Amino acid sequence: MSLPAQDTHRLAGILLLSASIPLLLWQTFPANQLTLSPPVFLAFHSVMEIFAVVVAALVFFTGHGAQETLRSTRSVALGCAFLAVALFDTLHFLSYLGMPDLVSPNSPHKAILFWLCGRLAAGIGLLAYVLLPETPVTQVPASRYAWVAVLLLLGGVSWGLLASPQAIPAMYVMGEGLTPLKIALEWGVFGLYLAIAVLLYLRRRLITHCDFESLMLALLLMAAAELFFVVYVQVSSTASLLGHTYKVFAYYFLYRAIYAEAVSRPFRQMRHMLTHDDLTGLPNRTAFSERLNQSIRSGDETEPCTVMLLDLDHFQNVNDTLGHEYGDLLLVAVAGRIRATLPAPAFLARFSGDEFMILLARTTSEQARQVGQTLLDAMGREFDIGSDRLGIGVSIGIVSYPADGESASVLMRYADLALHRAKAAGRNCLRVFSHDLSEEIQRRVLLEARLKQALERKELTLHYQPKLEIRTGSLMGWEALLRWQSAELGMVNPEEFIPVAEHTGLILPIGDWVVREACRQMRVWQDAGLPVGTMAVNLSARQFRQKDLAEEVSAALRDTGLAASDLELEITESSIMDNRAVAATVLTELERLGLRIAVDDFGTGYSSLSYLKSFPIHCLKIDRSFIRDIPGDENDTAIVRTIIALAGSLGLTVVAEGVETDAQLAYLRTHHCDQAQGYLFSRPLPPDECVKLMRAGLRRAAA
How many other C-beta atoms are found inside a 10 Å radius of the C-beta of residue 22? Predict the structure, then answer.
C-alpha cells in the first residue's frame, strides 16, 4: 500500500536528516573531503543557489502578494526577511571566484560575507514567524510597507559589503581554510536555528496556516547544513557541496511549509465552503454525492451500502413561531445528536434545509433499519434550545446499493420516494424502499409528462358539488373540484395528480385556470337566472404563496364579470401557518377585494387557534374524517360540537364535509351546524347536471 504524498515527503526529510549525521562524521576528517574542480563546483553551486533564490522570492511574494485579508504581521515579517535572503544569496553566488566581479574583486571572503548575511536574515525571519502573533495586516497598516524599509536597509548593507568587503575581518584564508570568526559565526547560526526549532515545538499550537512538520524539518536541515560549513577546508570540497545540498533541501521543505501551504490554503478553504454547510459544519449535498459515487465505484455487490434520507417533521412551524434564529439552533442541535447517534463509519451530510443524508458503508437495509430506529428514539428526546425545550419528529427513507439501484442519482431519488412514503404514513417513522415504489416513480414521471399537456389538450374539467343549508335544505353554493380525463391514462384521481402538480409547479397555471373557469361558469349560471349562491375554489399551498395572487384573482373577476362577494377561496390550515407573516398579507389583500375566505379541512392541522382571530376568516369547513363516524364515535362528536360552538362564538359559518347518512345530517342539525355537503345530497357533477339540479329546485319551490 502506497503512502500519501505528504507522508512520503516527510519520510524523505527524516531520512535525509538522519543521513546528515554519518555524512558529517565522515567529512569531519579533512582527508575524507574530496575537492571538485572549480568549474564543476561553480556549476553545481550556481544551480543550487538559483533554486534557493527562487524559493526565497516565492516566500516573499507569499507574504505580500496574497489578498490583504489573508496577510498577517507574521507572514509579512517572514516575507521581508526572505526578500533579504533572496538578495544576499544572489550576491553570494555572484561573488564566487569564476563569476564576473561585482564592484570589487570576487573572493571566498566576499562570498562568505553574503552567505552569513543570508543565513542570519533567514534565522531572524523564521524567529519572527514563530514569535509574532497572527495579527491581520489590516490592523497594523504600517506593516504593509515594511518591505520598503527592508529594501532600503538591504541596499545599504549590500553596497557596503560589495564596495569594502575588506572592512570585515577575514572569514577564509586561501591555503589555510576557515578563520575562527567564520567558525564561531556558523556555530551561532546553527544555535539560532536549533533555538527556533525548540520555540516552534513549544508554540506549535499557536502556529497556524503552515505545515508544522515541514517547517520543523526545514529548520533542522538548515542547522545540519551549517555544520558542514564549519568543517570544510576548501571552498570547492565535498563538505561545502553537502552543506549547499542540505540548504537546498531545507529550502524545499520551507517552500512546502509556508509557500505551498499558503497558496493551497485559500483553495482548500474554497473547497471546504463549496462542500460543507456553514451552519452545521457538515458536508453538503455536493460532498455527499461525491462520497456516494466514490463508494459505488470502489465497492461491489459483496459490499453493499445504504443511503438514509432524514427530514424534520413540521420544522417550518419552529421558524414561524420562534423565529429563524431558534430554527438554526435547532438544526445545529439535531446535527450534533444525529452525529453522536450514528456508528463511527457513517457519513453524515446536510442535504438541504431540514433534510440530512447518511451513507452507511457495508450495511444492509435491515441493519440500516436498526440504525434508523435508533435515530428515531434519539430524536424523541427534547432539545434544550436557549431557555426552551423543543421536541421535533423525523421521517426517514432508506435505500440500498446495489439491490435498489446502481447509480447515485437513482439511489437518492429512491430515498426521497421512501421518505415521502414515511411522511404519508403519519411522519416520525421510517420506510425502506421497495420495488413497488419504483413502479410508483414511473407512474409519477408519466403523470408529470402528461399533466404538462393536459391544459393544452383541454383534458382538465371542473365538477361542482352543492352546499346546502341544513335547516332549510336550500342551495347555498358550490365547490369547484378539478377532474382530469386523460386520453392516455383515463380518469386520474385528484389525490394522485394534484401532488404531482404541486411538486412540479404546474399547480400555478392549473390553479389560475381553475379560478377563471369557476368564475366564468358561475357567471353563466347567474345570467341564466339560476339560484347558484356562492362559488368555492380550493387554493393550493403553492398558489397561496404567490406574490401576485390577489392580482390574479382580481383579473379573473374582472374578465368574467363576477362579483367578488360571489367567490369563496378555500385555504388549508397548513397553508396559513407555514408562514404567518405572508399569510396575513395575502389574506388582507384578498379581503380588500371583497372575497370570502374559508379554512378547509379544519381540525386536522394545527392546535393553535390564534389565527382565527388574527386573520380575516369567514368560514370553517369540518374535515370529513370527523364526520365519518358520528354520531357513534364519542371523540368525533365532541370535536364536531366544539368546532360548531367555536365558529358560532366567532361569528363564522361552519360547513360539514363528507355528509353521507341521514344520521350524520340529523346530528349536525341538532347541534346547529350551518351547512353541509356530501354524497347524501349529491356527488360532484358536471355543469349540465348542476343546471338540472338547480332547475329541479326551482320547480319544487314554485310548486
Answer: 9
Cell numbers describing residue 200: 516552534
Helices (H), 380-470: 408-424, 435-454
Q: Contact, 56 vs 50, CB < 8 A?
A: no
H helix runs in 28-136, sequence order: 38-65, 73-94, 108-131
Categorise residue 616: left if φ over 0, alpha if ψ from -120 to 50, beta otherwise: beta
CATH code reported for the domain at 30-272: 1.20.1070
What are residue 558's phi and psi, to 5 degrees? Answer: -65, -45
- Quote the pTM value: 0.48
pLDDT digit string, tens, across residues 258-277: 765 555 555 566 666 777 88
Span 674-702, pLDDT tens digits: 999 999 898 999 999 999 888 887 666 55
CB contact set of 179 (below 8 Å; sequence gap of 6+): 169, 170, 171, 172, 173
Sheet holding 394-401, edge to edge: 347-352, 355-361, 305-312, 394-401, 430-432
Enter the C-alpha cell of residue 474. Answer: 336550500
Give the CATH class of 285-433. alpha beta
Task: Give, as one character, the DSSP assignment of residue 259.
Answer: I
Q: What is the pLDDT of residue 525?
A: 93
235 and 108 Cβ atoms separated by less than 8 Å: yes
**Within 534-633, where are the H helices?**
541-544, 549-560, 573-577, 580-592, 611-614, 624-627
More confident call, 448 vs 597? 597
**Fold entry, domain 457-702:** TIM Barrel (3.20.20)
The dihedral region occupied by 453, where left means phi > 0, alpha psi between -120 and 50, and beta the remainder, is alpha
- pLDDT tens-digit readout, 578-593: 667 778 888 888 888 8
Q: Where in the chain is the domain with CATH 3.30.70.270?
A: 285-433
Give the three cell numbers for residue 117: 548575511
